[in-house]
Amino acid sequence: MSILNISSLEKAIELGLTEPAEIFNHTRSTIIERLKKDGSKEGGKDGMDASIVCFDFANYMMKYSAANNPIWIIRNNEIIELHPDKIPVGKHDKDQTTFSQKEIKLHVGDLVYTLTDGMPDQFGGTKGKKFMYKQLKELLIANSFLSMIEQKQTLLTAFNNWKKEAEQVDDVCLIGIKIS
What we know:
Layout: H1 2-14, H2 20-35, E1 47-48, E2 50-56, E3 61-67, E4 71-75, E5 78-82, E6 89-90, E7 102-105, E8 111-115, E9 123-124, E10 129-130, H3 133-142, H4 148-163, E11 174-178
Antiparallel strand pairs: 1-6, 2-3, 3-7, 4-5, 4-8, 8-11, 9-10
Helix pairs in contact: 1-2
């Protein structure tokens, strides 16, 4: 499924699409068309959760589209949560719904994070519970004064300390960008 998702995104970009929502809408169509060939009556019902951000650094603007994954901005020790569309990029009950695209003004010093659910969904800790989004938000805010390299190390340490010997349940991707 990962290869299908990546190749479908690449196809949308090769066609010259540059707007985040356009890329997701085209990618979804490609995924659905390719999943029709799985041999089942309705075609495979699968897809991906993702977000696409497009920066205009000269004007401090960011366009984005998000499919089930939030985008967070830390500004002045507070999180601004950019809520995703509650649909995946792929076959779904609402696969005729167009992805929304939004724009937000950025400020110098903002920290923009886009992520998968891998870290929040990781089991661990003393009770074998999930890490959860709330704990991740608190960790990001508490360490937002650090350099991006130091934040990466802090997140990696926190993840490994939480997980300990537990099996990693999913891929973990968290991308942070500091606006300067």
